[in-house]
Design a protein that fits this description.
The protein is α+β, with helices and mostly antiparallel strands. It contains 13 helices and 21 strands. Among the domains are: 2-76, Alpha-Beta Plaits; 89-104 and 118-156, no CATH class; 194-256, K Homology domain, type 1 (Ribosomal Protein S8, Chain: A, domain 1, 2-Layer Sandwich); 326-395, Ribosomal Protein S8, Chain: A, domain 1 (2-Layer Sandwich); 413-450, no CATH class. The strands form eight sheets. The chain has a three-stranded antiparallel β-sheet with strand order 1-3-2. Strands 7-6-8 form a three-stranded antiparallel β-sheet. It has a three-stranded antiparallel β-sheet with strand order 9-11-10, covered by helices on one side. The longest helix is centred in the C-terminal third of the chain and has 40 residues, at 376-415.
């Protein structure tokens, strides 16, 4: 598989982490970004040298023609050999007087031994002129023809280009015409930059509420030429000169990056629906929590999110939410559905609680499950009512079971002609009921005897 990629390019940089290596590989595979195409993996082939090989030579050559490559914050230039090129001379040599062939200095070398015949001159030319000669075959042939007429020849070595400017290279008349076009374009752009433009930025409703006062104040002081207004759906409109809008936009982006966001966990869809009924929107819930301008709440169908510039404020708000809201599910035993008596009691209590403000909600399923949700105080009160109902039902059942047990005991004891039943009252007073003459009543009390 590696044999398919035979056209390498090299570049130098400090050691790259794995994620940066993957980004650079992806960059070289995208033609519109790097001029590249199908390539292999990026490899470290030296202390600070990396290599990537292309499947097709045309992709390699296109990448080499691009003077500068940028991947995130990394800026580098590529070459077609492993050894770095530290200079880019044009070496010329003249034919010796005895007619021998011209001698050229080898590519390697300012330090190589000079030739024994002829004269040699190394010229350090501008890198853009050198690149023009390499990329324009006609210009290179014209140079060779002119040098040949002087009994000279030249060898051009590659050199890494400079960055950060636009350079026009070519014949003088063409260069002057192109420079004029560029200057006219710059002047036109400068005039347009002074015209008022409008730019829309989407922050989201919660972020915009959190940052609005600071945005309005700071932009008014630092960028007075920019007018800022709020739009629907959490959008911000900036109107003014293009240059000022760009600066103001960068400042807003910096503030956005400082905002912390947190999704509140353990918040069921039922609780979220209750909050929408009770408070309507995010602003109403923020007012209830009393967080002021320091925390903003975003209430959605899928969850509840908090926004703030302070992690402590987020912690406190999340804690208050969980303390203030409660959801409880209780199963009523020994019933296939919730009894109508309990339903009516809970609905009546809930209506009373919600007279002034929506505080609690009770829901009944198709089985014997009761769901209580809302503010903690009201939910606990409803929960006590359900618990009391269950206890009352248990007491009735216990009384029935005890009565039946007493009858059985009485029957068995009667057959033995002994005590029919016995009861233990308060203060450990024991009462025995015996079979006999009802005209004679006796009671055995510890320490006493009466007839």
């Amino acid at each position: 598989m590696a044999d398919d990629y035979q056209y390498p390019v090299y570049f130098d940089c400090d050691r790259l982490p794995e994620d940066q290596i993957r980004k650079i590989e992806k960059y070289f595979r995208i033609h519109r970004k790097s001029n590249g195409g199908d390539c292999g993996a990026l490899r470290n082939v030296g202390h600070k040298t990396y290599c990537v090989a292309f499947k097709h030579q045309k992709d390699q050559q296109a990448v080499l023609k691009k003077s500068e490559h940028v991947v995130n914050d990394l800026v580098f230039t590529v070459r077609d050999s492993l050894e770095p090129c530290t200079s880019s001379p044009i070496t010329t040599s003249t034919t010796s007087r005895d007619g021998t062939a011209p001698v050229q200095s080898p590519q390697s070398s300012p330090t190589s031994t000079p030739p024994l015949s002829g004269e040699e001159c190394e010229l350090q030319l501008d890198s853009y002129l050198l690149r023009y000669l390499k990329e324009c075959p006609k210009a290179e042939k014209d140079l060779e023809r002119e040098l040949a007429s002087l009994a000279c020849s030249a060898k051009i070595y590659p050199m890494e280009g400079k960055a950060g400017m636009a350079v026009v290279v070519g014949e003088c008349s063409q260069v002057k015409a192109r420079v004029k076009d560029v200057m006219d374009l710059l002047e036109s752009t400068k005039q347009r930059s002074g015209e008022k433009q409008t730019s829309l930025r989407r922050l989201g409703e919660a972020k915009l509420r959190l940052l609005w006062k600071e945005i309005e104040q700071s932009l008014g002081q630092d960028y007075p030429g920019v007018e800022v207004t709020q739009r629907d759906a959490g959008q911000l409109a900036l109107e003014g000169p293009v240059e000022e809008i760009l600066k103001a936009g960068n400042w807003i982006s910096g503030k956005e990056n400082l905002v912390l966001k947190r999704k509140v966990s353990d918040m069921s869809p039922l609780v979220l629906a209750f909050l929408r009924k009770a408070y309507g929107d995010s602003a109403g819930l923020s007012d209830f929590l009393g967080v002021g301008d320091e925390v903003e709440v975003e209430l959605r169908d899928t969850g509840l999110r908090l926004f703030s510039l302070s992690a402590d404020k987020l912690d406190n708000t999340e804690k208050k939410l969980k303390e203030e809201l409660r959801e409880i599910k209780i199963e009523v035993p020994n019933f296939s559905v919730v009894p109508s008596e309990l339903r009516e009691k809970l609905e009546s209590k809930t209506n009373e609680m919600n007279q002034g403000q929506y505080r609690a909600e009770v829901m009944f399923g198709s089985d014997s499950m009761v769901c209580l949700l809302g503010h903690t105080e009201e939910v606990e009160e409803l929960s006590k009512a359900v618990t009391q109902f269950i206890l009352d039902q248990s007491s009735v059942e216990s009384a029935v079971h005890v009565s039946g047990a007493q009858k059985l005991a009485s029957s068995s004891l009667s057959e033995l002609n002994t005590t029919v039943a016995s009861y233990i009252l308060c203060d450990e007073l024991q009462v025995l009921v015996c079979q006999g003459d009802i005209t004679k009543q006796e009671a055995d009390v510890p320490g006493e005897c009466c007839q």
